[in-house]
Structure formats: C-alpha cells, structure tokens
Amino acid sequence: MKAVVNPSRRVEFDLLRGSGRGPRLGRLRIRGLEIPTPAFMPVGTRASVKTLGSEDLEALGARLILANTYHLYLRPGAELIARLGGLHRFMAWNGGILTDSGGFQAFSLARLRSIREEGIEFRSHLDGSRHLLTPEGVLDIQARLDSDIRMVLDVCTPQPADRARTAEELALTLRWAARSREAWDRALSAAPDEEAAGIRDEEGLRAGGRRAGGDGDRAPAALFGIVQGGTFPDLRRESAERLVDLGFDGYALGGFSVGERAEERVPGMEAALAALPAGRPRYLMGVGTPLEILDAVARGVDLFDCVLPTRNARKGTLFTWRGKLIVKNRACADDGGPIDPRCDCPACRRYSRAYLRHLFQVGEQLAGRLATIHSLAFYQQWMAGIREAIAADRFADFAREARARMETGGA
Ligand SMILES: [Zn+2]
C-alpha cells in the first residue's frame, strides 16, 4: 500500500516548537477542537471521570478525555450510545474524546480470553457472554461511539516477556494494523462525509457550543497506530517504521508501564520515537506520574493518559507541586492550609487539608470528588507549566526545578 502520511486529511498537527527529538510544543486540531500539546487526558473509563461531571472537566480546563471501548461496548453498548447521538452527547461533553480499541481490557479483565489471527476472543467479565474483537470490529464500535481519536487493535505484551514472544505478538499487531488501515480507507471512501468516517451531526455540535465553527465540525476522526515491541529497541524501531509505512494520523506507544522497570522503558521508547515522523502526534499510553510525563516530554511525547491522578485521589493520595500528599495522614488532621498552596483549583481555594482528611476518615463521598478535582487540576497545571516552559525555551530549567521541588517536598 502506498504510504499516506495523513490518512484523514483534515486532522492537523502543528508543531510550534521543537522537532522529532526533545520537548515539543504542538497544536492538535481535530473536528473543530484545538488541543495544545503536550496534553494529559483524564480517564473516563465508563463515560465518566469518576466523581466528576462534564461541567467539572470543562472547569478544570480538560480538552480531551479517554474512554474505554471495552467497558462501553459491554455496557450500555455501542448501539445504544449511537442511537443517542454518540458518546459526546451521551455524556454531554463538548471536548474531545479518545477511545482505545478495547483489546487491553479484553485481555486483562475478561475471562477465557484468547488471541488468534482473527482477533481477541473473550468472555465478558460481567455475564460470561462470548465476544470477538477484530481490527475491523473495534473501528466499527469506535465509530458508533463517535470518538474523535480512535485506536487500532493491538496485542499488548505483558512484561517481562522474552524476545520470541514479543516478536510474535508484534508481528500479529502489525498484521492487525494493516487490516485496520484498510478498513479505515474503506470507511472513508464509502462515506467520506458520513457517519462511517465518524461524523458527528451538526445539531449536537451546536448544542455543545464550545467548539470552533467551520468545516472542522464535519471532519473525519483520527486513527492512531500503536507501536509495540516490549523492551527490545530494534523491535520497537521496526514496529514504528512499519506503522509509518502504513500511515496513521498519530502514533501511540503501547506496552509501557505493564510490568517493566522504568530504566527498561527508555531505550525502547527512544528507538520508537526516533522512527516516527516529527509532524505527527505521539501518545504514550497509560503513563504516568508527573515525573514520568516530564521524562517522556523531554524525549518528544505529546499526549498522555493515566488513571493514577484520579485513582490515587479517591484513595486519599494527591499529587501536588511538592510531591505526593497522603491526606489521610495524621499530620493533616489539624492542618488548616490548602491541599496545595500553589494550586488555585476549587478544592484548594475553599477547603483545608483538615477538612478533606475528615471527609476521608468518615467515608464521605465528597472526599473522593474534592481530591479528584485537585489532582486533575494539578495535572492540568503541570502540563500548562511544561508547555509554557517549552514555549519560553526553558524546559530543562523547568524540569530540573519541578523535579527537585517534588522530590524534596521543598518550597
Ligand atoms: Zn488544588
């Protein structure tokens, strides 16, 4: 197949600062949305970022969220969401949505799963019903959800894994990527301006009101390929090169943070990034802590998602500019100060550490909500700080200072 650099034609990525290597400042434009990068996507697993409404996410400045295809496919079902106008309208969210392929959860959550040439067969973890996720099928599900950025089906090799297994699963991932690319072309050519290509109806966009006008509103969604290859740099490079030959709107780095040590991650990540085109967005799936994000931005990654800020928050561990705060600790019992003095989120402006600790101690649901609001606000501030530093050509200073403050808890 002829290499196509930008298969959807109208998904734009402007690289404002930087190049293929090192920190980059960018602007992803898709379907009337503008997303400044590097950017972090809060995780809304089941069409909800737990404890928050879409109005909260807007107030926090989130532009793009992640939703999990596996969960939504099983409940309430992609057909139902399509009938109700797609995922944006279903959850009343006017920002962007990236959906994964569902493969990772099918493999990690489902019972009796098996991977074969055709796809991933599994039994639902909810009711034992039998399902088959194919490269073509997951694109169809994501089209019904009408997400803005869609992911191909891949095999995420858990670590540690030997070279033979990693190479075998990578080869299957690449065959699936080629099938995905062909299915995407068929959908675009069959209905270039229709639902098959992921078109949202205009009424829904007007109801949203936050999107920019213009023809971006009727543009196709984006399709991202996923680099695999475990901890083997040569396999990572080969994976990236083959995907670039196929041509995707953006490229994800999958299979990181799946059991490998942090130092094992770097060579594979660098090998993959070196083989990806500078002018397309790169997305590191499922990573990470604020410092892990900093390290990946330094190497040229643009997009992130992670459950850590929200999951940890609900358990009482919050990220701050001075590192992790375990708000349940006794030290917070009579601390009348804010969660993070440097943060101006609604939780920090109004409530004290002592109050938040009390809410956790007595099991009030507000505890998880306030903690989530802060942690996501902090991640937004962290990414904004990164972007400002890159724009001002002082990313290295920012990274050094932020790391030191976080590691020492210093002021
Ligand atoms: Zn805050």
TrEMBL record:
Residues 23-406 form the tRNA-guanine(15) transglycosylase-like domain. It is an enzyme of class 2 (transferase). GO terms for molecular function: metal ion binding; tRNA-guanosine(34) queuine transglycosylase activity. Keywords: Glycosyltransferase, Metal-binding, Queuosine biosynthesis, Transferase, tRNA processing, Zinc. Pathway: tRNA modification; tRNA-queuosine biosynthesis. Residues 286-292, 310-314 are annotated as: RNA binding. Substrate binds at D100, S101, G102, G103, F104, D154, Q228, G255. The active site is at D100 (proton acceptor), D305 (nucleophile). This is Queuine tRNA-ribosyltransferase. It comes from Eiseniibacteriota bacterium. The gene is tgt.
